[in-house]
Specification:
The structure holds two protein chains of two kinds. In chain A, about 35% of the residues are buried. Chain A starts with a strand and ends with a strand. By secondary structure, chain A is an all-beta fold. The mean pLDDT of chain A is about 90. In chain A, the strands form two sheets. In chain A, strands 2, 4, 5, 9, 10 and 11 form a six-stranded mixed sheet that branches. In chain A, strands 1-3-8-7-6 form a five-stranded antiparallel sheet, with no helix packed on it. Chain A is built from no helices and eleven strands. Chain B is mainly β. In chain B, the strands form two sheets. In chain B, strands 2, 4, 5, 6, 9, 10 and 11 form a seven-stranded mixed sheet that branches. The termini of chain B are far apart. Classes of the chains: A mainly beta, B mainly beta. At the A-B interface, strand 4 and strand 5 of A face strand 5, strand 9 and strand 10 of B.
């Protein structure tokens, strides 16, 4: 049972435009969500997170939105830059448990 | 941010040999370290969780006798792939949890293992 889903395996966006990456989850007990960025042959890098008590968290060009009723979160990157081309993973955890449940990732390609 | 290193970054070995991969937290003490495996175009699969000074907790389906994990100090965990076979070829990633940061894990750069 895949509790965290990223249904788009890839996304192509023009440089300077907004990139929106989506993530859905099924477990209503999840209370913390994270986004990671990963380049090939490297480990993931933490980007931004959000607690379930919030519906938005912003850090520079990155904003994460959480819709608990829809069990949906999204990562917005604006403006998109060529260096943003990577695979983005969303992950979730519950009850202060450090174990992360990962989505399958979305490959973001920023076109010049 | 916190830095986690892995050594080696890549290794090629013969079938039947054992390979040790080290994971170090360089600027913080990691109470918990995690070992992941990533298959091509797939998500990260948690293999085991190790806490300093205690036995690792393995995920279902992961053979603990094949993937030996030792977390001898707050800055070092090792994963030994014993009697490696070609199907063990994969990208292995460790991460370390900073005990003061809620649910943030810092990842190492990964180790590419190829078993011939």
């Amino acid at each position: 049972d895949q509790q965290v889903k990223q249904n788009s395996p890839s996304l192509s966006v023009q440089e300077g435009r907004i990139s929106i990456l989506n993530c859905d989850y099924t477990n209503s007990m999840f209370d913390y969500f994270l986004w990671y960025k990963k380049y090939p042959a490297e480990g993931p890098t933490f980007l931004i997170s959000i607690s379930s008590i919030k519906d938005k968290n912003e850090d520079g060009r990155f904003t994460v939105f959480l819709n608990k009723s829809a069990k949906h979160l999204s990562l917005h990157i604006v403006p998109s830059q060529p260096g943003d081309s990577a695979v983005y993973f969303c992950a979730a955890s519950r009850n202060s448990n450090y174990q992360l449940i990962w989505g399958a990732g979305t490959k973001l390609i920023i076109k010049p | 941010g916190a830095v986690v290193s892995q050594h080696p970054s890549w290794v090629i070995c013969k079938s039947g040999t054992s390979v040790k991969i080290e994971c170090r937290s360089l600027d913080f003490q990691a109470t918990t370290m995690f070992w992941y495996r990533q298959f091509p175009k797939q998500s990260l699969m948690l293999m085991a969780t190790s806490n300093e000074g205690s036995k690792a907790t393995y995920e279902q389906g992961v053979e603990k006798d094949k993937f030996l994990i030792n977390h001898a100090s707050l800055t070092l965990s090792t994963l030994t792939v014993t009697s490696a076979h070609p199907e063990d070829s994969s990208f292995y990633i460790c991460s370390a949890r900073d005990g003061t940061a809620y649910n943030e894990q810092f990842f190492g750069p990964g180790t590419r293992l190829t078993v011939l």
